[in-house]
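Figure S4 source data
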Amino acid sequence: MYYDEAADAVQKALNTSETGLSSGEAENRLQKYGKNELEEEEKTSVVKLFLSQFKSFLILILMAAALISAFLGELIDASVILFTVILAGVLGFVQEYRAEESIKLLKSLTSPEALVVRNGKETKVPSSLLVPGDILVLQAGDRIPADARLLETISLKIDESSLTGESVPVEKNTKIFPPETPQPDRKNMAYTGTSVTYGRGKAVVTATGMSTAFGKLAGLIGEIERERTPLQEKLDQFGRWLGTATLVVVAFVAMIGILQGFDPFEMFLWGVALAVAAIPEALPAVVTVGLALGVRRMVKRHALVRKLPSVETLGSTNIICTDKTGTLTQNKMTVEKLYVNGTLLSVTGRGYEPVGDFFKEGQSVPEDVHLHKLLVTGTLCNDAGLAQEDGIWNMMGDPTEGALVVAAAKAGIWKIALEKKHRRIGEVPFSSERKMMTTLNTSEGRLYAYSKGAPEVILASCTKIFHGGQEEELTPEMKQKILDTVHELANQTLRVMGFAYRQVTENILPEEAEREMVFAGLMGMRDLPREEVKVAIATCKSAGIRTVMITGDHRTTAFAIAREIGIYREGDIVLTGVELDALENKEFEDIVEKVSVYARVYPEHKLKVVEALKKKGYVVAMTGDGVNDAPALKAADMGIAMGITGTEVSKEASSMILTDDNFASIVSAVEEGRNILKNIKNFIAYGLTCHIGVVLIVLVGVLAWQILPVIAVQILWINLITDGLPPMALSLEAPNRGLMEQKPRKSKEGLVSRRMLIASLGLGSLIAIQSLGVLYWALKEGVSLPKIQTLIFTLIVISLMFNAFNWRSDRYSVFSLGIFTNRSLIYAVLSTVLLQLAAIYVPIMQTAFRTVPLSLSDWGMIIPLASTTLIAMEITKYLERKTPR
C-alpha cells in the first residue's frame, strides 16, 4: 500500500501537502488514530502490586503465626502481628509504587522526537504524537519513527537490519513499485525502527503504532525497562548472607529458650519476628526508590540517565572521553578570519546577528570578487538557515554551517535569495569519513559544484586556485602556503575549513564533481570554551578522573584548546587519527594512558580508544552525537549522547543523555552518581546497626538472664518504624563537600566496606551494651518485666534515631553538615518518635505492644544513653580526620 502509487497521489489520499498538517488537524487525527506507540504488555495493577508485598516466606510465616495466635485465644497478639504486617505491606507498596512512577517519568523523558513539517514550518514533536499525513524530515542518524512513503531523497540510505535482517544499508528512492513487490524491495518506503545512515530526505507518514510493519511483528520495546540493577543483586547477596547467619543464631537461641522453659509458641513467634527484623527485605525497594529519586535529581542537572544500573557505573567512572565542539565549547561558531587571493582578512561581529565588516590590515575591504566567490561557495554548500524572529536572529541547523551563512550575510549575500538564483539539484552529504560536502547548483543554464570541508581534503581535490581574478594552476608552493596559513589559524584556536568550486557538465554524478576543483579560500571560525568547563575539568582532576578530548579538528587547534582549558598536561601525548591507525594495538595500549588529546579522528577511532582503556582496567565514559558514534557509546561503560545535537541512533545506544550538551553536566552527573551510591551505602549501614543491635540484645538477654528484653510484637514494631521513613530520608542527602575529592569507587568494590561493617558492628554493640546495662540495673532494682521491656524497647528506637544522623555522612560531622540541611530526615525522625510515643502512651497501643507509660526520670535516663550512639560516632569521625592517612 502506497509504495505502488505516485508521491503526489499518496499525499492526496492522506489529505496532506508539503506544508504539512495544521496543529488542529494533527490533534484531530491523534484522536482518531491514537498515539504512535506499540501496545504494552498488561501492567501490574495497583492491587497486584500491593498483594505482592505479602509473598515473602517470612511474612507468610508471620501471618500463619497470627492465625495460630487467634486460634489459641491470643487475639491481641494476632491483631498486632496482622497490623504490623499490613502496615509493612503498605510502606513497601508506597516505595515500589514511587519507584514505578519514577521509572515511568524517565521513560517519558527519553521518548524519541521526530522532525516534522507542521503549519508550514519544521518543528520537533514527540514521536508518539505523529499521525498519518505528517511530513517527516529525515537526516543521517535519525531513527524512523513511523512507516512512511518517501517524497524526496538525496543520497538516502537506511539501515533496515532490525526489520529484514539485511546488514547492508538500503539505498532509497521515490520510484513507483509494482503491487507484487515484497516488503524488503520497496525502496520508496521507510519503516518504523529502522535508521538513516546516510543522506537526507522527506516522507509522508502512512501508518503509526500497531498499524506499522514493526507493530505487526513485535510487542513493546521499552526505552527504560524495569530491570534488576547490579546494586540490587549485591543487596540480595548481602541479604541472603545476613539472613542465613541470623536464622542460625535465632534457631540456636530459640532452642536454648525452649530448653530453659519458655513457651515453644512464644519462642517460635519471637524467632520469626527477630528473623524479619534482621533480614533487610525492604532494602531492595528502598534502593530502587533511592536510585529513581537520584536520577530525577540528575534531570534537573541536565543529565538524563536512561537505565538505573548506569548510576552505579557513574560512581566508578575514572576516565571521561569527550567531544570538543558543543560539549567543551559553546557551539556558537563565529567566522573571524578569511584567506582569499593569498591574503588574510579579519571579520568583525559576534553571534548570529549578520552585522560586521571585513578588514585587511586594519583597512576596510571594498567589494572583492575573491571574497564574493568564497562566501557564495560557503553559502550554497550549506544546509543551515538564518531567520529573524521578534528582533532576534536565530540559526537553524549546524552551528558551523550557520557561521558561514552569517559571514555571507555580513557582505549582503543572503542565503534564501542566493538559493533561488542557484537552485540545488544534487549533493554528496558530509560524513565524518569523507570530511567534506558537495552540492550541485544550476544557474542561468550552467551547472556548478561547490565543496567545503577539512582544508587538506579540499586541497587534495583541487588542481586550480582562484587568484588574481582568474583561475590558475595550483602549484606545490601555493599548496604549502595555504597549509602554513591553516597551521597559523589553528594556532589561534580557530577551526579552519577549506572551500572549492568547479563548473561541471550536465548529468555528472555528484561524486565525480569532487575532482579537479578550483580552490576558493579558507575560513577560520572560533567556538569559545564554555565558561564552566575549566572548573569542571579541575573538579575531575581532584576527583581522580582523567579527561580526554576527542575531536575532528586540526591537531594544532585541538592542542591549543586542550591546553587552555586544562585537559593537556605537560608530558601528555597528542595523537591524530592517522598516527593512531599506524599503531599496532599493543603499541597503542602501551601509550593510551598518556594520550590526552585525539585530533583529526574518525568515529571508529573512538571504539579503539574505549577498548584500549578498558583493557587497562579503566571505567570509561564516552560522549558522542553521530550515527557512527553508536558502537563506541555501546562499548563504553558509560555512553553519553548529546540531547540537542545528538541523533536518535546515538541516544538509543547511550546510557545517559545530556540535555544541554555540556561537559560540566557530565561532572554534575558523576557527582550525583557518587552521591546516590554514598547514600545507599549509608542507609544500609544504618539498617545494619539496627539489626546487629537487636539480635545481640535478645541473644545475650536469653543466654545470660533467661529473659526476653523485647517481645516479638515490639521487634516487629522496631523493624517497621525504623526501616521505613529514616532510610528514605537518608537517600535524599545532598552531596558532601568532599565527595569530588575522593578517588573513584572501584567497580568490584563490595556493598559494605570493612570500615562500614566495623562501624555498624561497633554502634550495634553500643546499643546492645546500653540496653543490657538497663536490663541489669532494672533487674537489680526489682523493676517489673513490662517496664523493663518498655525501657529497652524505647531505648533501641531512640538510639536508632540518633544513629540516623550518623549516616548522613560516614566522614563528616553532622554539625558541620548542618543539623537542618536535610529537613526530610528531621521530619522522618520526628514522625518515628511520635509513633513510638503512641506505642507507650496510647492505651490501645499499650495493650497491643505490652508497654507501660514512662516517667520523666525514665526519659532522663533513655535520652542521654541513646545520644551516646551519635557522640561515639562523632568522636570516631573526629579522630579519623585528625589521623594522617
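Figure S5 source data
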Amino acid sequence: MAGFACQLLSLLCILGALQLVRGYSFRNCMEHKKGQVFNCYNRKEENMTAIIDDLPSTAVNLSINTNHVPRILNNTFTRLPNLLLLSLDHNQIRDIEQLAFHNLTHLKSLNLSFNLISALSPSVFHDLGNLTFLSLARNKLKELPGDIFSTLVSLSNLIIRENFLRNFTGIAKSISDLQNLRKLDLCQNHLTSLSHFNVSLPKSLNALYVCYNSLSTLGNHSSLLKPIQLLDLSHNPRLSTEAFHGVDLEGVNYLRLQSTGVNIFEFLNISNIYAGHVDFSNTSLNGSSEVIKLCNILQKKLPKIKNLDLSHNGFQIGKNSPILNNCPEIKEALNVSHNQIKIINCLDFLKNQTQVQVLNVEHNHITILPPCDEAVRLPNLLEVTFRYNHILSIKSFAFKNTPNLKILKLNINIISFLDQKALKGLNGLETLRLDNNLLTTLTKNTFEDLISLQTLNLRNNRISVIFSETFFHLGNLTILDLGGNKITHFQQSGLNGLRRLAKFYLDGNKLKMIDPSFYHIFQDTLTVLDLQNNQINLLSEKIVVPPFMNLTKLSDLKLGGQQPHGLAFLPTFLFQGLHSLRSLYLTDNKISLFGYNVFDDLTDLNFLSLDSCCVGVMQLQPGIFKNLKNLTTLMIENTGMQNFSKEVFGSLTKLQKLQLDHNVMQQIDVEALQSLPNLQYLDMRRVPLSCTCENSMLKNWTENNQDVYVVYLYNMQCPGDAKTKFYKFDTSVCYIDLGEYMFVGTTLVVFLFTFTPLFYVKLYWKFKYSYYVFRSWFSEQWRRLREEEENCKYDAFISYNSSDEMWVMDQLLPNLEGKGSSFKLCLHHRDFEPGRYILDNIVSAVYSSRKTVCVVSRNFLSSEWCSLEIQMASYRLFDEHRDVLLLVLLEPLSDRQLSSYHRMRKVMLKKTYLQWPGTECVDPTQSQELFWNQLRRAIGTGSRTERKGDDTSAHTRGSQHSETHKSDESCYLLP
C-alpha cells in the first residue's frame, strides 16, 4: 500500500506540473503588468463596455486610446473598482452618461482629452472623491455646470485647455469648492476676461494658465489673482497694459507675458509684482537699446535678480556691447536664446555679470568661437550651451576665460574645425557635447586638459580614424559616445588612457572586426558596449582569441544590424568569459549557424534579443540555451523559426517574457510551454498556427487559463480562413469520447494481463480441442466418421500413457480381446495409420470406437496427447450426449492431483469410474475378476443417451454402485 500511495502521489505531482503554466488573453487590451496595467489601443469596437468586459477587477491602470467610441454608458467601469489611473484620450467620445464612472471611488487620475465632448452631466464625476488629476483638454466644451466638480474634494490638477469656454465666472463657480486645487489650465479657449462675480477662486490655487485666449481685461477687483503664484498670460494679443491697473500681483513669483499687447516698461511702472519674477522672453525687445532700457528699470527696482530670460526678442549683441552693464546682478541663469546674436566676442557682454552660472545662447546665428585667452574671466560660469547655432570653427583657447565650466554643449552645429587647443584650460569640465557636427579629426592634444571629463559625446560626426592616444588624458571618463561616425579602425593605443570607461558606444560605424586588444585598458570597468550597425562579419575573420574574454564586468552588449551581410556565424567561443552579461542584442543579422555552446558562459543573462537575426529558417540546436538559467526575456521575432521544442527552450526555467511574433511555425508544443514555469507574457501574433488537431492542446491551453498572458489571442486567425479564429476552432473531432475510450482500453489491457494466465492454465486444452474440432468439422473425414458412427470399427479405443503400456499389454489386452471376449480394441501403437497426423489418428480412433477407455495414472495426467484424447471423448459425452467415455484408475489419485483437470473431475462426478484393485485387497484375484466383468459390461452397453434421460442414467449408476459395493469397496471405486 505504501508503494501504491507513492506512485499515486507521483502521478498527481506530474499532473499538477502539467497544469502549472497556462495561457490567457484579452480580446481588446494588452497587459503590461500582470493583472494591473492595461492598454487598449486602436480597437474596432465602438462599445466601451465590450472593450473592457474581460479585464480583471484587479486592474489599477487602464489606457483606452485611439479608438472610435462615441458614447460611454452608465456603469461601464463598475467591474473595475480598483482603478487608480484611467486614460480615455483620442477616442472621439461625444457623450458621457451621468453614471459612467460609477463605483470608481479609488480613481486618482482621469484623462478625457482629445475627444468630441461638448457637454457634461452635472453628476458625471459624482463618485470620484479621490480624483487628483482631471484632463478635459482638446474637446468642444462651451460651458461647465456650476457644481460639476463639487464632489472632487481631492482634485489638485484640472486641465480644460483647447475648448470653447467663454465665461470665466461659470468656471470659477464650478471650481470654487475645490479646496485642494493647485493648478488650473485654461489655455486656448475663448476667454475675454477673468472677471468672476460673487465667486472666489480656491485659496489653494497657485498656478493659473490662460495663454492663447482673447483676454482684454483681467477682472473687476484687486484681489482677483491674490492666491496665484504662477500666472501664464502669454499669447493674448488683446491684453494691454491697462488691464493690470489695480490688479494685485504681489504674490505672483512667475509671470509670462509673451506675445501680448503689454508694454513691458509701462507694466513694470504700474505693477506691484516683483520684477525678478517676470519672464521677459518674447516681450518685443527688438533692439539692444530696449534691453538696456529694461535693465535700467530693473536696476531701480532690485539690486539682484536670480534668473533673467531675454529669449525670443530678436536683439543683437555687438562687440563690447554694454547691453547688460546696467542690469541688476544676475545670480544664476541668463537666457538669450532665440535672438539674432551673431558674435559673442568671448562673452564680453557679461563683463559686469560675472556671477552668472548658467548661460543659454541656443538658436542664434553664431558662426565662430574666437580665442579668449585675454578676455574677461568668468570664474562662476558653470554651464554654457551653444546648441542650434551655425558654429563652423572653434579657435584655440576659446574657453580660456571660463576655466570652471562643468557642462559645455556645442552639439547640433556645423563644427568642422576644432583647434587642438580649443578646449585648453577646461580642467574642471565634466560633460562635453560635440555630437551632430562635421568633425573629421581628433588628435592627442584635443582633449589634453579635460582631466575631469566624465561624459564625452561625439556622435554623428565624420570621424574615420581614432589616432593613438587621442583619449590618453581622459582618465576619469566614464561615458564615451562615438556612434554614427565612419570609424574603420583604431590606431595602436587609440583608446589608451580610458581607465574608468563604463559605457562605450561605437554603433553606426564601419568597424569590420572585434579586436580584444582595444579593450584591455578598461576591461575591468566597462559595463556597456554598443557595436550595432557596423560591418562585422565573423566568417571573414579568423578569431583566435575570444574577443570579450577579459570584460569581466560587461553587462550590456549590442551586436545587432551588422552591414551588409550580418554576423553570418556565431562561433562557440564568441561570448566566452562574459559571466556578468545581463543583456545581449543580436537583432537584424543574417546568422546562418549558431555554435552549439555559444551561450554557455552567459550564466547571468537576463535579456536576449534575436529579432530578425537569421537568414532563411533559424535552426537552433537542442541545448543551446541550457546555461541561461536566469534569462527572463527572450525576443525571437521574425526569425523564420519553424518549430518551438522543449529540447531547445526547456531549460529556460526563469523566462517571463517570450516574443515569438512573426515566425513561420504552424504548431506549438504545449509541453514546451509547460517547461517554462515562470512564463508570464507570450506574443505569437502573425504566427500561422494551423487550426488542426496538431494544435488542439494549444487551443485548449489558451481556453481556460490564468497564468500566461497571450497577446491578442482573440485576434489570431486560422490560416486561409479569415472568418475563423484560432481560439475557437472546432477540436471535437480530436477528442471524441477520449475519456471513455481510454477507460475501456485500459480496462481491457488490465483484464488481459490478469486473466490470460488463468485462461491458459484452465482452458488451454478446451480451446485447443475446440480449434481442432472446428477445423475438422468441414473436412470430408469428419462427416464420414459421423455417418459411420453406428457401425463402429472398434469396440473401444484405449487411451493410455506409454509408461503404462506393460499393464495394458499384460492385463487389459488379454482380458478384453482374449479369454472368450470378442471385443476389438484400438491401440495407438498397433492401429494408428503410419504417416498420418497424430491429431487425425486420435480423432479417427475416438469416432471409430463405441467407447473410449482412459487408463488414468499420474503419468497419464502429465501427457499432452492423453489430455487431448480425454477432451475428445468428454466432448462426445457432454456436448453430443453419447455415453462413450470409461475411466480406469490404475492408482489412487488425490483431489489435489486432480484439481487442475476440471474436465476429468466433471466426468468423475457424473459417471461411474473403475479403479484397478491393488495388492492391498483381501482377495486380489476375486477383485480383479469382478473388475474385468464390470469393464466388459460397460464396453458392451450402447453409446446413445437421451437428452432428458439424466434421471435414468443416475438410477443405473446408482444400481451399479450398490452392486459393486457389496463386493469390496476398498478395491475399486464406483461413485
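The domain at 779-967 is CATH 3.40.50.10140 (Rossmann fold). Confidence is low (pLDDT under 50) at residues 1-22, 945-975.
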